[in-house]
Each structure stands twice: as C-alpha cells, then as structure tokens.
UniProtKB/TrEMBL annotation:
This is L-serine dehydratase. GO terms for molecular function: 4 iron, 4 sulfur cluster binding; L-serine ammonia-lyase activity; metal ion binding. Keywords: 4Fe-4S, Gluconeogenesis, Iron, Iron-sulfur, Lyase, Metal-binding. Belongs to the iron-sulfur dependent L-serine dehydratase family. SUPFAM superfamilies: Serine metabolism enzymes domain. The keyword Iron applies. Its cofactor is [4Fe-4S] cluster. Its EC number is 4.3.1.17. The gene is sdaB_2.
Length: 435
C-alpha cells in the first residue's frame, strides 16, 4: 500500500498524473508467491487510490478491490476520472524474484499511446518498510548515526546505559526527544498501545471463518468465552495467565488474517506477540502502569533496531526467525525491563528469545497468514515470557551475546533455502492439502 501510494504521489509531483491512462503492477518473488493469500493486491489498489496503512478503514481495501473486480475501473488518487484496470491484465504475478531483494514490485504508468510515462521498482524489506530501487542500492552503504546516543550493536547499547546511568528505555526516550517533544513521544507510545489493545479486544469478540479456501475458524472468541466463564478465584493462577497470554496473541493474528487493523510489530505476520505480552503485563502484573507500557515499547524498539540494522525482519529474507523470532526477542526484552531487569538482563532476555527461534521457517499454508502463523504467535508470546523470567534468574552474564545471536540469525537466513522463506513452496505449505 505504501509503495503504491508513493508511486502515485511521485507521478503527481512530476506533473505526469494527467497523462496517465493505465497503470500496471508486477509482483516478483515472495510478493508474487504469497501475494494472493496476504492481501497484497487489495493493499496495492488501496495505495493507488491514496489510502495509507495508518488511516485506512478496516473494510476499505476489500471494498475497493471488489469495486475494481466488478467494474474494471480504478479511482486513482488525484484524478477526477477513473482508469481502466483489469486484475487479469494489469496486476501480474511473476514467480521469479528480482536480483536485489526477494520482495519486489514494479509499477508502470502509461499514456494514451501506450508509452511508459513513469516506472519505478520498490522492495518491501520487512516491517512495513519500503524502499525504491535506488534507495535499496544505497542501503548497502552503512548510514552513520551522528546522534549523541547512537548505537549499532547491543554491546554499544549496554555501554551507553552504563555511561549515561540509565536503562535501555531511558536511552530510547532521550533519543526520541531529540527529534520530537516529550508529549509527542508519550502520545505516540500510548497511541500504539491503544491500537494494539483494541485489536486484541476485537479479535476476542469476533466469530466466523477466516478468508480463503482453508476455511479456518476463528477460535479466539471461543477461548475467550471459556476463560471468562472460569471461577474468578482461578483467573489469576499461573496456568490461567498463560491461557490468556496465548489468547491475546491469537486474537491479534486472527484480526491480521482477515485484514483488520494491527500494529506492525515488527511485522504483520508476528504482530500478536508484543501486544499479547504487554496485555499480560497490564492484566497480570501487580503495579503495572502506563509508564511501564511506555518503557516496554521503548525497550522492545531498541532491540528491533538492532535486528533491522544488523540482520533482517523480513520473512522473505531470513524466514520466520526474522518475524516471530524477532518479535519474541523484542517482547522478552520489554517484559524483562518492566519486571525490574537490568540492561544486562534485558539483553540476555532478548538473546534467549531469538536463540530458540533460530532456523524457524516461513511456510504459510496457501500463502495465508493463518496456518501456522496464528498459533505460532501464541507460542512466541509464551516463549517471550519464559525468556524474560529466565534472564531475571541470572545476573546478566551469559555465554552467547545478543550481537552473536543476531549475526547467527542472519547467517542462518542466508543459508536457508528459498522455499522456506515466505514462498509457500516448502514445509507445511506443501504438506497440507487445501480443501
């Protein structure tokens, strides 16, 4: 969606929009292999119409897609008239990947004579981040962060904490306040949490069957009814807390599977883990607070930055270890922090969270984020809780560093066969019959 919207905005800035009579979209690699199941086509059409991920209504993309499918007309952003657009002729799925990145797409705009007015290639590099071809090429050159509190490794982050006499959340808070006001930082963090929490609530109260031929039934509402009906005296036992934690994660990912509003954390396929662990903290940890939620998010963000800088958060590049594995690592760090962990213990929690996801494949059945993705988020949330608690038992000293495990994850992803990296060509995806 973001790439398509950017494409149209660029057309408008160039003054070429009035010349356009046709737009063609070509998907390559993983975007092509799982695009139908992931709702990629719907997202692209919404972007071409000017919608943005942050503001689009939950049902808008599906409605736009149905409109184009029926009338073969596209209301391109900024144009008074609609364009002819055929889903068969103008939205093409190419099996091969572009050499630069496994998640590639090319958009072209043509005039009345069929001459290409403007074309651009974009790459979806994970976590909602999109770069153009030129930007992707320049990304191979490390960007120097000249902020006083810059860090590019966990070792540097821990050194900063010791030097500044603060924790990881404190470092992140001060970094954010260098570019926006404290009020804006606080408001942004709370907006993220409110969106996450609302998604959990929607998922727990929604019923029916998820889209697609697998006919996967939504289970979160049923589990919610079971857990809510328990004896109140049993609601805060350790077993009950784990049940609720799993439910929270499943609720989010059922929403994601049907195109609902989620927070990319760090990806949509792994969007249930961080919200679930925060909700666990809010609902089951005495003394939880808004300030604690903010510290959780800031700490998790610092860990996410390290994966983004030094490895990948793209399932198409490194498999699900880069999605659920990273989300688990981030959530483990955040929870450890709000439970009183030192920066060294937090780093240990993040390391444990990833270490036990190394080699995890991304093999969605039917190209849909349903099987095994929904349950996998529940498992990732539980492992994050365990990783945080294990780290708190120690003093922060451990053999394998977070930097080492991030490097290992990157190497493992490079060695992983393409069929296990969000292509639905291997693993469960080829061993489960679609009915």
């Amino acid at each position: 969606m973001r790439a398509a919207r950017t494409f149209v905005e660029t057309l408008d800035e160039r003054g070429d929009l009035s010349r356009v009579v046709r737009v063609r979209v070509e998907l390559h690699g993983s975007l092509s292999a799982t695009g139908r199941g992931h709702g990629t086509a719907e997202a692209i059409l919404a972007g071409l119409c000017g919608e943005a991920p942050e503001t689009i209504g939950p049902d808008t993309s599906a409605q736009l897609f149905a409109h184009v499918q029926r009338f073969k007309r596209l209301p391109l952003r900024g144009m008074e008239s609609t364009l002819r657009f055929s889903l068969d002729d103008d939205l093409l799925f190419h099996p091969g990947a572009l050499p630069q990145h496994p998640n590639g797409m090319r958009l072209s705009a043509c005039d009345e004579a069929g001459v290409v007015v403007f074309a651009r290639t974009y790459f979806s590099i994970g976590g909602g981040f999109v770069v153009s071809e030129g930007e992707h090429a320049s990304a191979s050159t490390p960007v120097v962060d000249d902020q006083p509190l810059a860090f590019s490794s966990a070792a540097e982050l821990l050194q900063l904490c010791r030097r500044e006499g603060t924790d990881i959340a404190g470092i992140m808070q001060r970094r954010e306040c260098q570019v926006r006001s404290p009020e804006a930082v606080y408001g942004g963090l709370q907006h993220l949490w409110r969106t996450m929490s609302a998604c959990i609530d929607r998922g727990m109260h929604s019923t029916g069957v998820l889209p697609g031929p697998l006919e996967v039934r939504r289970r979160a509402s049923q589990v919610y009814s079971i857990l809510s009906g328990r004896d109140p005296a049993l609601q805060h036992t350790p077993d009950a807390a784990l049940d609720w934690l799993s439910l929270y994660a499943m609720a989010v990912n059922e929403e994601n599977a049907c195109g609902g509003r989620v927070v990319t954390a760090p990806t949509n396929g792994a969007a249930g883990i961080i919200p679930a662990v925060i909700r666990y903290y809010v609902d089951f940890i005495p003394g939880s607070s808004e300030e604690g939620v903010n510290r959780f998010l800031l700490t998790a963000a610092a860990i996410g930055i390290l994966y983004k800088l030094n490895a990948s958060i793209s399932g198409a590049e490194v498999g699900c270890q880069g999605e659920v594995g990273v989300a688990c690592s981030m959530a483990a760090a955040g929870l450890c922090a709000v439970l009183g962990g030192t920066p060294e213990q937090v780093e240990n929690a993040a390391e444990i969270g990833m270490e036990h996801h190394l080699g995890l494949t991304c093999d969605p059945v039917g190209g849909r984020v349903q099987i095994p993705c929904i349950e996998r988020n529940a498992m990732g949330a539980v492992k994050a809780l365990n990783a945080a608690r294990m780290a708190l038992f120690g003093d922060g000293r451990h053999v394998v560093s977070l930097d080492a495990v991030i490097s290992t994850m990157k190497q493992t992803g490079a060695d992983m066969q393409t069929k296990y990296k969000e292509t639905s060509l291997g693993g469960l995806a080829v061993n489960i019959i679609e009915c």
